[in-house]
Design a protein that fits this description.
mainly alpha; 7 helices; globular
């Protein structure tokens, strides 16, 4: 369950007209904080980010699941399920045994996944997969929303 302040930050981003991926960033940040605090670990930075994305979708952020070819079939079906749940699906109390087992497994993992070095490496590898034009377009979009949020 995401913290109230994380949901509040994401809602603020939405009000300011920021992209769903920016709203999702708040949930990923929360996940990284949890790993740094020692609440649990993660096998890799990618896993930590995936947990944040899942939380965001379940919290109602309009972040559509990845398209075919962008992620594994298993990952896509899980993302679809999370998205449906967040967009007003039926709510059912999560299984206590399953929740405890997940947390227990995560506690056994290391804490290096949220280090500045690991995050930097992940960001660089993600950026390298995009073209210069895509990176430039993203920066221009960010600049537009930044200008909007600074007009108080």
């Amino acid at each position: 369950m995401p913290e109230k302040r994380t949901i509040a930050r994401a809602r603020k981003d939405k009000r300011e007209g920021k992209a769903p991926s920016t709203q999702t960033g708040e949930f990923v940040r929360e996940e990284m904080e949890h790993i740094r605090e020692g609440k649990h670990g993660a096998r890799s930075t990618k896993q930590a980010i995936a947990i944040g994305l899942s939380k965001a979708r379940r919290a109602g952020v309009k972040l559509p699941p990845p398209t075919k070819g962008r992620a594994s079939t298993q990952m896509r079906s899980k993302a679809r399920r999370d998205y449906a749940k967040g967009q007003g699906g039926t709510w059912k109390r999560p299984s206590t045994k399953r929740s405890h087992a997940t947390l227990k497994a995560l506690r056994r993992e290391g804490h290096g996944a949220a280090s500045h070095r690991a995050l930097s490496r992940q960001a660089r590898s993600s950026a390298h997969r995009r073209s210069a034009a895509q990176r430039s377009a993203a920066a221009k979009r960010a600049a537009r929303t930044r200008a909007k949020s600074n007009q108080h």
